[in-house]
Amino acid sequence: MSSKALDYENLNENVKKCQYAVRGELYLRASELQKEGKKIIFTNVGNPHALGQKPLTFPRQVIALCQAPFLLDDPNVGLVFPADAIARAKQFLGMTSGGLGAYSDSRGIPGVRKEVAEFIERRDGYPSDPELIFLTDGASKGVMQILNSIIRGPSDGILVPVPQYPLYSASIQLLGGSLVPYYLEETANWGLDINDLRQSVAQARYKGITVRAMVIINPGNPTGQCLSVANLKQIIQFCHQENLVLLGDEVYQQNIYQDERPFISARKVLLDMGLPLSKEVQLVSFHTVSKGYWGECGQRGGYFEMTNIPPKAVEEIYKVASISLSPNVPGQIFMGLMVNPPKPGDISYDQYVRESKGILESLRRRAHMMTDGFNSCRNVVCNFTEGAMYSFPQIRLPPRAIETANKLGKAPDVFYCLRLLEATGISTVPGSGFGQKEGVFHLRTTILPAEEDMPAIMENFKKFNDEFMEKYEDHKGYSRM
Amino acid sequence: MSSKALDYENLNENVKKCQYAVRGELYLRASELQKEGKKIIFTNVGNPHALGQKPLTFPRQVIALCQAPFLLDDPNVGLVFPADAIARAKQFLGMTSGGLGAYSDSRGIPGVRKEVAEFIERRDGYPSDPELIFLTDGASKGVMQILNSIIRGPSDGILVPVPQYPLYSASIQLLGGSLVPYYLEETANWGLDINDLRQSVAQARYKGITVRAMVIINPGNPTGQCLSVANLKQIIQFCHQENLVLLGDEVYQQNIYQDERPFISARKVLLDMGLPLSKEVQLVSFHTVSKGYWGECGQRGGYFEMTNIPPKAVEEIYKVASISLSPNVPGQIFMGLMVNPPKPGDISYDQYVRESKGILESLRRRAHMMTDGFNSCRNVVCNFTEGAMYSFPQIRLPPRAIETANKLGKAPDVFYCLRLLEATGISTVPGSGFGQKEGVFHLRTTILPAEEDMPAIMENFKKFNDEFMEKYEDHKGYSRM
User: Fold this and answer.
1) CB < 8 Å to B80, chain A
2) Which Pfam families does this UniProt record tie to the protein (chains A, B) (predicted)?
């Protein structure tokens, strides 16, 4: 029988081509080992609750009440839920017609979009229009919607930082566009050089590619750097000159682990720059409930906000959103709660602050523990995680390790990460999944393992790494300490 | 300044081309009127809770507890939740690592996929493999994933019934494929004629299109018919001969309003047919928590099950699913609850049965009220809604109404539906959004308005319709009764 529509040979080529390393070979092998009974530490994906982070109590109380509205009339409800959670649940239910079981408008519940707009205004100091905010099933879905609107074919290019979060490479491949890389400079703390950027665009143009958009990830994933205002200004000016839409992936804006460079949104910097840029540069900014101190990944809540996108284009994006009817409504409620949490004086305020501060401070300590741990290892160097949730150490693999990997038909960093997984149960993602300069190797790990487990994890890592290096190093060229 | 990447002119043409009438012109106008204070009855979309259907109690209790796991240790929890809901919540939480806040595997929680497989086995009498079941954010997202895997370009065709649910036309346009229509015959109760199907494929082939898949919607949307076993056998044989993947949209399988033709899954019919077909015909079946007596649209839960899809293709579909990390976890729990509801002897069983039977019986009565109501109107004929949630009456528009519409630049059925909306607040979808034969006009309405409101709605409809007909009819050619 001839091959069929859903046989591998006949699949959409873009589907076959795309790669998503975060759940690639390493993850699949880790899942196998877990099935076989090995204890696996999944640090391949920023999934805090899977590594033991507790959900914030107040939002879970509110969502539980929204899911069970009949409790609101139960005389005993006050025994298990605080009054402010009950009031907030009533408020949310009043924003819907039909509660959590009804499709909302395809852009999301108007009342929640209004709360998001008010949050953005408080954050940036400029008003925001709820009609230009679309709620999404997590930020990834929003990114894919926008890329789908932009990309018309292989001659449309999207500037993406390298190393990058592979959502971008995978989506661009899936949509049949071209990824135009710009390199972040590891020795300059993963900074971005506008001259390199210019060169990337020139090279792409030479190949017949029209660069149409530029992605920034701030704070960086996997690289953890926080962009400075000066850098953001350069980027915005560059987008203006080159007529690019700026896509601002700002999902880690709550995850900041140093005080020198607080998070500043691309939108604030753009509007601060004034006319003509503030009215001309197109910007789409993305946010999520999956990161921050919330970590509510499984709920799939997110939004994007559009700046300087003309109404006719917004309408088209709305139309496409409407095909999937609506983002999940509980995820929308989480977004409302995230942007409008308990206030001073509310019954749940102290608990909310205590819980979120606890998570954030612990993440900050873990960021240090991890960077210090990696830097204590032989042939490993690592920039400090200024923000986001990842550590991205460079692993200087000895030539013999590279040869061995080549013989096994594996990329050298994949080889290293597989060995690490088998030896320690630590499931990381090889740097090649994010892109790296030729001949340089990394891995990405989250900083999310529980704080009390961190010393043992770093010790196991060091033991594995140093033995690995010992095994593969050419001792003639190195002296052992 | 030259136009920018996210200006209308520069958008992806497939984005601009696609149409989704369910939330199209009529819906937008209805939303405007609602903002202006008019009472709107949204029957444009199968959204039961928005029209007052109450959620089933037990699943909401379970999900509330899963969202608030700290309640499981609360000594007062038994005062507001029954013991079987508490036990079920614990069981679900035990299936996750990290509860509802953690990404699951991109195919969904293994334990829930196992429950789905067991449900399918009970329903069809054949075992089902959880590894071939992927949970999705509602059925629509699953359909789009599968179409995305199949469609390589404009010469790939997908057979779609006309009238059809516009998810199919919109997704095929968005993905750059070709829709190949096959017509359902209104006078034969929306039946399907295999000879017409053959002709559709031949015509497509003549135009250079390779037909690769065939969509069936059973029970039908918008047409409401239930496919007979004989019809399903013909379809499967046809798919075998023509080497097509059969896409079985079976989201309304719980919504059956007659006893002559119960729902039978395409999978059961296929496996009943035995070798070689049972091992050769590729089938993907879709289901959801949004329909049935659940109507949990806002939760966005669904699944697809693959039959005879080779492992390498399944892997590719898994890879693409992994780019969006995971379907929302609460929606997965709803799916687990739907396929494995309370059993006889459970504390909540009686209530669950009472609630679901109440909804289903009321829907059956409403199906009759609506069909009878439409058939009592001048120039309106309507097949009985055997299943699903819609009524799709044919509106025989007088020539002068068609002329007036043409003068206003509106399709005649859009013109009629807009007038209906302005006069009565009833928000329907014109038949042209689903496809209909040239010169024949319909509208789609859900049968979902509350039963007690139904007589008034049908009366308002009749009053509007009969006056409309009166106004536009050429009295020379008609006699008034």
Assistant:
1) 71, 74, 76-77, 79-80
2) Aminotran_1_2
